[in-house]
Specification:
5-stranded parallel sheet; alpha/beta; about 55% helix; two-stranded antiparallel ribbon; Rossmann fold; rod-shaped; single chain; about 220 residues
Length: about 220
Protein backbone atom coordinates (compact mmCIF):
# COMPACT_ATOMS: atom_id res chain seq x y z
CA UNK A 1 0.00 0.00 0.00
CA UNK A 2 1.47 3.35 -1.10
CA UNK A 3 1.95 6.13 1.40
CA UNK A 4 -0.24 9.20 1.06
CA UNK A 5 1.27 12.70 0.74
CA UNK A 6 -0.50 16.04 0.95
CA UNK A 7 1.09 18.88 -1.03
CA UNK A 8 -0.15 22.43 -0.37
CA UNK A 9 0.68 25.32 -2.70
CA UNK A 10 -1.44 28.17 -4.07
CA UNK A 11 0.37 28.07 -7.45
CA UNK A 12 -1.12 25.55 -9.86
CA UNK A 13 2.13 24.99 -11.75
CA UNK A 14 3.85 23.88 -8.53
CA UNK A 15 1.03 21.47 -7.71
CA UNK A 16 1.17 20.02 -11.23
CA UNK A 17 4.95 19.60 -11.08
CA UNK A 18 4.72 17.82 -7.75
CA UNK A 19 1.96 15.54 -9.00
CA UNK A 20 3.89 14.58 -12.16
CA UNK A 21 7.14 14.04 -10.28
CA UNK A 22 5.92 11.82 -7.45
CA UNK A 23 2.60 10.29 -8.55
CA UNK A 24 4.29 7.02 -9.58
CA UNK A 25 5.75 6.56 -6.11
CA UNK A 26 3.10 7.88 -3.74
CA UNK A 27 -0.59 8.60 -3.50
CA UNK A 28 -0.77 12.39 -3.92
CA UNK A 29 -3.39 14.76 -2.51
CA UNK A 30 -3.25 18.44 -3.55
CA UNK A 31 -4.57 21.58 -1.86
CA UNK A 32 -4.49 25.14 -3.21
CA UNK A 33 -5.03 26.84 0.17
CA UNK A 34 -4.72 26.29 3.87
CA UNK A 35 -8.48 25.97 4.27
CA UNK A 36 -8.66 23.24 1.62
CA UNK A 37 -5.73 21.48 3.25
CA UNK A 38 -7.44 21.45 6.64
CA UNK A 39 -10.56 19.90 5.09
CA UNK A 40 -8.41 17.12 3.62
CA UNK A 41 -6.67 16.53 6.96
CA UNK A 42 -10.02 16.28 8.70
CA UNK A 43 -11.11 13.35 6.54
CA UNK A 44 -7.76 11.64 5.83
CA UNK A 45 -6.46 9.91 8.96
CA UNK A 46 -3.50 8.07 7.42
CA UNK A 47 -1.39 10.82 5.87
CA UNK A 48 2.30 9.98 5.95
CA UNK A 49 3.65 13.42 5.02
CA UNK A 50 2.40 17.00 4.61
CA UNK A 51 4.37 19.46 2.51
CA UNK A 52 3.30 23.09 2.58
CA UNK A 53 4.44 26.28 0.91
CA UNK A 54 5.04 29.04 3.45
CA UNK A 55 3.85 32.24 1.68
CA UNK A 56 0.22 31.84 0.58
CA UNK A 57 -2.97 33.95 0.80
CA UNK A 58 -4.88 33.19 3.99
CA UNK A 59 -3.18 30.70 6.26
CA UNK A 60 0.60 30.54 6.09
CA UNK A 61 2.55 27.31 5.88
CA UNK A 62 3.54 27.62 9.53
CA UNK A 63 -0.10 28.00 10.58
CA UNK A 64 -1.16 25.03 8.44
CA UNK A 65 1.57 22.76 9.81
CA UNK A 66 0.78 23.83 13.36
CA UNK A 67 -2.86 22.79 12.80
CA UNK A 68 -1.65 19.57 11.21
CA UNK A 69 -0.03 18.64 14.52
CA UNK A 70 -3.52 18.55 16.03
CA UNK A 71 -5.47 16.99 13.15
CA UNK A 72 -2.99 14.38 11.88
CA UNK A 73 -0.28 14.25 14.51
CA UNK A 74 1.22 11.06 13.09
CA UNK A 75 2.08 12.73 9.74
CA UNK A 76 5.55 14.14 9.19
CA UNK A 77 5.75 17.78 8.08
CA UNK A 78 7.99 19.60 5.57
CA UNK A 79 7.85 23.33 4.82
CA UNK A 80 8.71 24.62 1.34
CA UNK A 81 9.64 28.27 1.10
CA UNK A 82 11.13 30.66 -1.42
CA UNK A 83 12.49 32.81 1.39
CA UNK A 84 15.32 31.85 3.69
CA UNK A 85 13.91 34.05 6.44
CA UNK A 86 15.22 32.76 9.79
CA UNK A 87 12.02 33.87 11.50
CA UNK A 88 9.90 31.71 9.18
CA UNK A 89 12.18 28.75 9.69
CA UNK A 90 12.20 29.09 13.47
CA UNK A 91 8.41 29.49 13.51
CA UNK A 92 8.06 26.33 11.43
CA UNK A 93 10.31 24.44 13.81
CA UNK A 94 8.66 25.73 17.00
CA UNK A 95 5.00 25.85 15.96
CA UNK A 96 4.76 23.24 13.23
CA UNK A 97 7.59 21.04 14.49
CA UNK A 98 8.62 20.40 10.89
CA UNK A 99 10.85 17.48 10.06
CA UNK A 100 12.61 19.43 7.32
CA UNK A 101 12.35 22.53 5.14
CA UNK A 102 13.10 22.89 1.43
CA UNK A 103 13.97 26.11 -0.40
CA UNK A 104 12.31 27.05 -3.70
CA UNK A 105 12.81 26.37 -6.47
CA UNK A 106 13.10 22.80 -5.28
CA UNK A 107 15.14 20.23 -7.18
CA UNK A 108 13.32 16.92 -7.64
CA UNK A 109 16.35 14.92 -6.42
CA UNK A 110 16.73 16.89 -3.22
CA UNK A 111 13.01 16.85 -2.52
CA UNK A 112 12.80 13.12 -3.27
CA UNK A 113 15.49 12.35 -0.69
CA UNK A 114 13.71 14.50 1.90
CA UNK A 115 10.40 12.75 1.17
CA UNK A 116 11.95 9.27 1.37
CA UNK A 117 13.52 10.07 4.73
CA UNK A 118 10.31 11.60 6.09
CA UNK A 119 8.19 8.65 4.94
CA UNK A 120 10.65 6.16 6.45
CA UNK A 121 10.49 8.11 9.69
CA UNK A 122 6.69 8.00 9.57
CA UNK A 123 6.67 4.24 8.92
CA UNK A 124 9.13 3.56 11.72
CA UNK A 125 7.08 5.58 14.21
CA UNK A 126 3.93 3.78 13.05
CA UNK A 127 5.55 0.38 13.55
CA UNK A 128 6.75 1.45 16.99
CA UNK A 129 3.22 2.49 17.94
CA UNK A 130 1.87 -0.89 16.80
CA UNK A 131 4.57 -2.76 18.70
CA UNK A 132 3.93 -0.68 21.81
CA UNK A 133 0.20 -1.31 21.54
CA UNK A 134 0.80 -5.06 21.15
CA UNK A 135 3.19 -5.03 24.11
CA UNK A 136 0.71 -3.16 26.29
CA UNK A 137 -1.99 -5.66 25.34
CA UNK A 138 0.32 -8.58 26.11
CA UNK A 139 1.31 -7.04 29.45
CA UNK A 140 -2.36 -6.58 30.32
CA UNK A 141 -3.01 -10.25 29.50
CA UNK A 142 -0.02 -11.34 31.62
CA UNK A 143 -1.14 -9.18 34.53
CA UNK A 144 -4.61 -10.70 34.36
CA UNK A 145 -3.07 -14.21 34.23
CA UNK A 146 -0.92 -13.41 37.28
CA UNK A 147 -3.97 -12.11 39.16
CA UNK A 148 -5.89 -15.28 38.29
CA UNK A 149 -3.03 -17.57 39.32
CA UNK A 150 -2.50 -15.64 42.54
CA UNK A 151 -6.16 -15.97 43.45
CA UNK A 152 -6.04 -19.69 42.67
CA UNK A 153 -3.01 -20.09 44.95
CA UNK A 154 -4.79 -18.19 47.70
CA UNK A 155 -7.75 -20.49 47.32
CA UNK A 156 -5.48 -23.53 47.48
CA UNK A 157 -3.67 -22.17 50.50
CA UNK A 158 -6.98 -21.75 52.30
CA UNK A 159 -7.62 -25.53 51.93
CA UNK A 160 -6.13 -27.50 54.81
CA UNK A 161 -5.84 -31.29 54.24
CA UNK A 162 -7.01 -33.17 57.34
CA UNK A 163 -7.31 -36.89 57.93
CA UNK A 164 -10.92 -38.00 58.15
CA UNK A 165 -10.08 -40.49 60.89
CA UNK A 166 -7.26 -39.31 63.15
CA UNK A 167 -7.70 -35.56 62.35
CA UNK A 168 -4.00 -35.04 61.60
CA UNK A 169 -3.00 -32.17 59.29
CA UNK A 170 -0.87 -32.63 56.15
CA UNK A 171 1.62 -29.82 55.46
CA UNK A 172 3.06 -28.64 52.11
CA UNK A 173 5.90 -31.20 52.44
CA UNK A 174 3.38 -34.04 52.64
CA UNK A 175 4.11 -34.66 56.32
CA UNK A 176 1.32 -35.31 58.82
CA UNK A 177 1.06 -33.52 62.18
CA UNK A 178 -1.21 -33.55 65.14
CA UNK A 179 -3.80 -30.80 64.85
CA UNK A 180 -2.58 -28.92 67.92
CA UNK A 181 1.06 -29.13 66.83
CA UNK A 182 0.31 -27.85 63.33
CA UNK A 183 -1.76 -24.90 64.47
CA UNK A 184 0.78 -23.93 67.11
CA UNK A 185 3.59 -23.88 64.52
CA UNK A 186 1.69 -21.89 61.92
CA UNK A 187 -0.43 -19.53 63.96
CA UNK A 188 1.44 -18.95 67.24
CA UNK A 189 -1.52 -20.44 69.07
CA UNK A 190 -1.20 -21.64 72.68
CA UNK A 191 -3.85 -24.12 73.72
CA UNK A 192 -5.73 -24.20 76.99
CA UNK A 193 -7.88 -27.19 77.76
CA UNK A 194 -11.44 -27.45 78.93
CA UNK A 195 -14.51 -29.59 78.43
CA UNK A 196 -17.45 -28.62 76.26
CA UNK A 197 -20.97 -29.27 77.63
CA UNK A 198 -21.56 -32.17 75.25
CA UNK A 199 -18.37 -33.96 76.26
CA UNK A 200 -19.03 -33.16 79.92
CA UNK A 201 -22.42 -34.87 79.78
CA UNK A 202 -20.94 -37.88 78.00
CA UNK A 203 -18.08 -38.11 80.49
CA UNK A 204 -20.40 -37.81 83.48
CA UNK A 205 -22.59 -40.53 82.02
CA UNK A 206 -19.61 -42.83 81.53
CA UNK A 207 -18.40 -42.18 85.09
CA UNK A 208 -21.85 -42.95 86.46
CA UNK A 209 -21.95 -46.24 84.52
CA UNK A 210 -18.50 -47.14 85.77
CA UNK A 211 -19.55 -46.40 89.36
CA UNK A 212 -22.59 -48.60 89.09
CA UNK A 213 -20.51 -51.46 87.65
CA UNK A 214 -18.02 -51.28 90.54
CA UNK A 215 -20.73 -51.48 93.30
CA UNK A 216 -21.05 -55.02 94.88
CA UNK A 217 -24.06 -57.02 93.97
CA UNK A 218 -26.83 -56.61 96.43
CA UNK A 219 -29.25 -59.44 97.11
Amino acid sequence: MRCCLLFIDDEEINRNNFQQTFADEYEILLAASGEEALEIMAREDDLALILSDQRMPGLSGVEILARARELVSQAERIMITGYSDPDDIMAAINQGQVYNYILKPWASGELRIAIIQAVERHQLKKENRLLLSALEKKNAELEELVRTRTQELKNLQSLLPICSYCRKIRDDKNAWHELETYLRRHNDILFTHGICPHCYENMMGELADMGQRKQPDQE
